[in-house]
Amino acid sequence: MKLNQSRFTDFQILGLSDLPNVRSFLFFIVLVIYVVALAGNLTIILVSYLDKTLHTPMYFFLGNLSLLDICYTSTTMPKMLQVLLVEKKTISFIGCVIQLYIFFSCVGTECILLGVMSYDRFLAICRPLKYLVAMNSKLRNILAGASWFSGLLNSIIHTCFTFSLHFCSSNKINYYFCDIPPLLSLSCDDTFLNELLLQSVGVFIAWTPFLCIIVSYAYIIVTILKIKSNTGRLKAFSTCFSHLTVVILYYVSSIFNYVRPASTHALDKDRVISVLYSVVTPMLNPIIYTLKNQDVKKAIVKQLLYINTCK
Predict the structure, then answer these.
(1) How many CB atoms sit inside 10 A of residue 268's CB?
(2) Domain 10-310 superfamily per CATH
(3) Burial class, 212, CB count within 10 angstroms (exposed 0-12 / middle 13-18 / buried 19+)
(4) 108 CB contacts (<8 Å, ≥6 apart)?
(5) Angstrom distances, CA of residue 101 to CA of 107, 149, 174, 187, 255
């Protein structure tokens, strides 16, 4: 499907605020969040790779999640910082296409990956004796690869359909990055097919993994309740707490933004919600997994001690 550039060579991004004092404050906040998100997720990836005790399926998928979060933040936040810093708040047409494609690839991939991670926790807690055999390196590579491939394919479809529209009403995007709902609001074409596609594909990309998560945790909770000792129950639940927290933060906000009728969209409110899963969640993910995970803490300390001894 050929991309339709209409009569615009670029789009104007309205950003988070037009007030100079507020923009300066937001620039500082966004910069801190971006640096923390990059540092935290890079730490998770490096520690999971360097420490052999973390060479398990759980940390393999966690490394993929951290890579996704780096892609999330690096796709939107540098442009956010630029828009907050300079008066010219524009993004080229091609730049908008690339930003939407990468961002929506991350959205689809993370939905499926979180479902895969819940299945991994199900096997670890409900089938502990068969866990390492069932979740072998071949299967985990297939599951991770399928997550990334599904996200990339999903984004190709939505990006092509979105930019096949004519944008003739305005080039002002009432958002801080190029996303589907605000772009559809700019089109003078009938967007029914785009909205139907967003809802129908969302069933497979968002709702199906979410259903898998619910079913997996139903089995996990039943299994944990059968454990007789309080220590055993707490230990089993602690391995799931981080993932469950991330799922709640991510799915509530992303499903709210995409998998609902277009008539209910209010861009001023939607962009506030989108900050949660595209900015805040990628920063919180490594913090959540680190604070509640003794293995990661020990691995980080071990690597820091190793670095100090090498100096």
Answers:
(1) 9
(2) Rhodopsin 7-helix transmembrane proteins (1.20.1070.10)
(3) middle
(4) 150, 151, 152, 154, 155, 205
(5) 10, 13, 18, 18, 18
- pTM score, two decimals? 0.89
Residues 24, 17: Cα–Cα separation, whole Å? 10
Angle formed at CA 253 by CA 291 and CA 110, multiple of 5 degrees: 65
**CA separation for the pair 109, 118 (Å, rounded):** 14
The residue extents of the domains of the chain are: 10-310
- The number of residues making up the chain comes to 311
CB atoms within 10 A of CB 121: 22
Q: Are strands 90-92 and 172-173 parallel, antiparallel or unpaired?
A: unpaired
Burial of residue 13, with CB atoms counted within 10 A of its CB: 0-12 exposed, 13-18 middle, 19 or more buried: buried
Closest by alpha carbon to 179, among 285, 80, 70? 80
The dihedral of CA 15, 99, 47, 129: what is its sign? positive
140: CB partners within 8 A, 6+ apart: 57, 60, 61, 120
Closest C-alpha among 203, 38, 19, 67 to residue 27: 19
pLDDT digits (tens, 9 = 90+) for 245-302: 888 888 877 766 666 555 555 556 666 677 777 788 888 888 888 766 777 878 878 8
- pLDDT (tens digit per residue) in 145-193: 999 999 999 999 999 999 998 887 678 887 888 988 888 888 888 888 8
What the block records as the tokens of 9 is 């060579």
E strand map for the chain: 10-13, 90-92, 172-173
